[in-house]
Amino acid sequence: MLNLAQSLPLPFLASSNSKPKARNAFDLTPPMRAIVGLAATAMSLAVAYAVTRGLLGIAPDHAATRHLAVVIHVATVIPAIPLGGFLLLAPKGTPMHKQLGKFWVALMVTTALSAIFIKTSGSFSFIHIFIPMTLWASYKLIATARRGDMKGHKKEILSLYLGALMIPGIVSMALPGRLMNVWLFG
Length: 186
Known about the structure:
By secondary structure, this protein is mostly helical.
């Protein structure tokens, strides 16, 4: 009989009787795995709830949904949340990890570039500081991966995921009047 844990490379399906593998430079510590898992799950659920409310018309209408930059921004950031969490928790170095990682970076870069065209009252806000941070971290994580510097790659991907994705996500949900705040609490 086929063992599901052997057929799917998902860390949470690994059987308890499997031999522990040696840690490599990218393995996350158990506390960091818990932080990433909790952040990915909580943010994914909150965004799914907010978007469902917005699309079903349960939440109040928001003018931002009529702006192409906002639509692109939301459409690229939503899948980046669970995908980034999955990539951080799943086995590294596999062909699937590499392909999904490239797709995730493309989502993050598109999210950041679209944010350039989103302005509050015609000007940039403090949250726009995450645009250059995202672009720089995206470049660095690609460069470190190509060099084989997995310790540097880990640092960049964690800063990009937790710093440039989770923090602005929390801010967008917490600030009254922002799309995610209105859809989540309105």
